[in-house]
Amino acid sequence: MWAEILFGLIIYRLVRLCLYDDDILEVETSDSNALFSVADRLKKLYGGKVYVGLRIPDADTATRQNIDLVLLTTKGDAVVVSVKNLDGFVLINADGSWVCETKNKTQTLPDPVEETRKQASILESYLEQRGILLPQGYLSCKVILPNPKCCTIQSSSFPSEVITYDQWVQLKSEAKGMFSGWIKGAFRGGKKETQESIQQNLSFILSTAPVWDRLELRGNKYVLGEFLEFKGKQEDLQALINIKRSKVSRLIIQKTSMLGLAHSRLQVLYTPRDYRSEGASASEWKEVGVRSSTEVLFQPQNSTKVRKFKFSSIVSMSLSA
């Protein structure tokens, strides 16, 4: 009996090692997952499009401003959304900064609402540089706290731009006031054709704006950051030689063996980058075969550590132009 239990534990550890490397476990509750979870729910609630992980050039600082989400709803809302995946008790200081207290640490954050307004201002300037002059007040801002372990102390003292976790879970598509009221001033009486034109131009520019590279991992896990290179056997690297960000926008990994063993092989489908369209047809996808042990070197957003992800752990990878 004990031999059977020991054998079972060994098999479990081997399967866990092959299927769930440390990097996947480490990002299980990451901020990237929270971004995509919020983006999915906003799209279901309000329709339209959600742009995730933008890196907007800031002319004043010669750097790039990270923007979590931009929501364009079917009703014409344009919202810059900051997602704060905070865990613990959150309260607001007199100066507008936030304090997040957990059992192990106390974290102080600059005013997230003010930061989101700054992001909206930088985005507005970027859009102007690309030919869109938005009416005053067209962009609105929201800060969302989606973590169920986040508890807001004196939530009534939070600005109206903040959606606490309790409000987030109760949010309905018909709820007015959360994301409405974006048309202000002289534009309130604007023509429908003008609004549609702005939305179309916004959609095009946001779909071609700089973004973080992204990895989609098994188990609906995501990592935003920067793809660096592939690592593996020479013949596999040779097969992947054409997969560069200048040539490829996305790759999909298929047919992984059940145990993901080092000697197994899988198929990598990739589409040539086409700046004229949003995607490629099935006939344009190309295929190469590589070992499942081949790795992607990836530096996650807000991290100085380079991570290694085995192809057997990856569902897809998208590369920013």
Keywords:
alpha+beta; five-stranded mixed sheet; eight-stranded antiparallel sheet; single chain; 321 residues
Report low-confidence residues grouped into runs of 5 or more.
Answer: 5-29, 181-189
Order of helices and strands: HHHEEEEEEHEEEHHEEHEEEEEE
Assign a percent range to the helix content: 25-40%
How many alpha or pi helices? 7
What is the residue-mean pLDDT, rounded to a whole number?
83
Summarize the main sheet.
8 strands, antiparallel
| Tally of structural domains | 2
What would the principal axes of the Cα set say about the shape?
Answer: globular
Q: Cα distance, first to last residue?
A: 57 Å
Q: How many E-type strands?
A: 17
Radius of gyration: 22 Å
User: What percentage of the residues does DSSP assign to strands (E)?
Assistant: 25-35%
Main-sheet strand order equals 14-13-12-17-10-11-15-16
- The helix-and-strand class reads alpha+beta
Provide a brief overview of the structure.
The chain has 321 residues and is an alpha+beta fold. The chain has helices at residues 2-19, 22-26, 31-46, 112-129, 165-170, 192-208, 234-239, and strands at residues 49-58, 63-72, 78-83, 88-92, 98-101, 106-109, 139-144, 150-152, 162-163, 213-217, 221-231, 248-254, 265-272, 286-291, 295-300, 307-310, 314-318. The longest helix has 18 residues, at 2-19.
Please specify the SSE layout and strand pairing:
Blueprint: H1 2-19, H2 22-26, H3 31-46, E1 49-58, E2 63-72, E3 78-83, E4 88-92, E5 98-101, E6 106-109, H4 112-129, E7 139-144, E8 150-152, E9 162-163, H5 165-170, H6 192-208, E10 213-217, E11 221-231, H7 234-239, E12 248-254, E13 265-272, E14 286-291, E15 295-300, E16 307-310, E17 314-318
Parallel strand pairs: 3-7, 4-8, 7-9
Antiparallel strand pairs: 1-2, 2-3, 4-5, 5-6, 10-11, 10-17, 11-15, 12-13, 12-17, 13-14, 15-16
Pfam families: NERD (PF08378)
InterPro entries: NERD (IPR011528)
Keywords: Signal
